[in-house]
Amino acid sequence: MKSVSRRKVVIVGAGAVGATFAFALAQSGLADEIVLVDNNEKLAQGQVLDLVHGQSFFPTVFIRPGGPSEYGDADIIVITAGRAQRPGETRLQLLKGNAAIIQAITKDIVEQRSPAVVLVVANPVDIMTYVALKASGWEKGRVIGSGTVLDSARLRHILSTFCNVDVHNVHGYVLGEHGDSEFVAWSMTNLAGIEIDMYCPLCGKCSDWIAQRARIEEDVRKSAYHIIDYKGATNFAVSLVMVTITEAILRGQNSVLSVSTLLEGEYGINDVCFSIPCIISSGGVHRLIQGPLKHDEFDALARSAEALKSVIRDITA
Question: Number of C-alpha atoms within 13 angstroms, CB side, residue 45?
Fold first, then answer.
C-alpha cells in the first residue's frame, strides 16, 4: 500500500499525447509516481527510458512502465488510448472500436478497486467519457473528460492576439461538444473584467465586431484541423491542459474548468457528457456551474447535446 501522501498518476496510452503529458507532468513536480501503460509494451518502455534520462533536469519523480495492476492505488488515471481509422473503415466502425477499448480499460480499473479519478482524453472525448462513466458504474464526478478546456485556451489565445491584450487577462469558455458543434459563450467572455461586447466598441479596433466574432469562433472550431493538417496530430497544448486538470485534482484547488461531465437536468439537458464550467478539486467534479446564457447560446447548447446523443445512439445500437 502506497503512502497517503504519495501522488500517483497512471497514463493509459504511451503514444504522442500520453508521452507528451508524461513529459509535462514530470516537469511540473505534481506527481511522485508516473506509470505508462500500453498494449505495446516496448513503446511504453521506450518512452519511459527516454523520460528518465532527463531526470536530473526536473523534480524527483519515479517513472516506470506498468500494467492494469497499477490502477489499484492510483490517484488519477488518464486515458489517452485509442486507435486510428483503418483503410475502408467507417467513422461509426472506428467509434465502436474505440468505445470497446475504453470499456475494456474501465473494466480493468473497476476490477482493481481503484480509488482514482479517471480523466478521459481519447477522442471523441465526450462520447468516450460517457462510455467510461457508464462502464464504471461510479458517481459522475469521478469520470471526466478533458472537454473544451483546450478549446477555451485557443479562444483566449486568438482573442489575445486580435485585441492585443495579454492572454492572462482574457477569460472565456467554449461550451458543448469538443468538436464541430461546440460554440463560444460570448456572454461569459471578458477582458480584464469587461464584457467582450462592451470592451470591443471601446477599443475601436474593428468596425464590425459581430462579423469578427463569427470568424474568431470558426478559427477556434477549426484549430485542431489546421494543426493536424500541418503536423498530423495535436499533443503539446492538450498535455498542458491535462497537467492543469491534474493539478486541480491533486491539490484540491476548486478550479473552474470546462471539462466534459454528465448532465442530469442542467440547462434542461440529460444523459450526455459535454462541457460546461465545473468546479474541479480532489475527487473530480464537485459542482457544475450554470451561468446565465443568452437565448442563442442556450439553443446552441441544446443542439450540441443532440448531436452527441445521436452518436451515442448509433454506437449503442
Answer: 4
